[in-house]
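Predict structure. Chain length: 141.
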Amino acid sequence: MMPNDTNELHAILARSIHPNIDLLAHIFLRNEIAIILHETDRSRYELLRQMGWNGKAHVFGLRRSKAAQTIGKTDYVTAAWIQRQSKVDVGRIFVLARQGSLLVNYKPGEGYSIESSSTRTARAAMADAAERINAPFVGMT
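Prediction complete.
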């Protein structure tokens, strides 16, 4: 399930992604998947602990192998997103927002994009949210 509301996506960008760009850069340099907790439902805490969450951090890195064993089992889209190798540096951000999740890609010099298998509504909302905080958004990857 993915957040489709423009205001919710704006909140994710403005309060969870944008303020953590330095930490995200370090996670990407280690070729890990960034996990961002944005108003995450407590029912997700057990899964987060299985991923190595310390119970406090709102942003942390997860090795791809561990990601494949945990969030990669949720659906085939997420599994393919985790395993995909790209010719250019792409940072991957798995956002847990309330009861849903969002697959976000980041390309240096281009900006953020929602994974191509995401809904059109979510991509349009993300683009609008990015514009509101003046963050680059390239659409679909």
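Summary: Helices lie at 6-17, 21-29, 45-50, 64-69, 76-83, 120-132.
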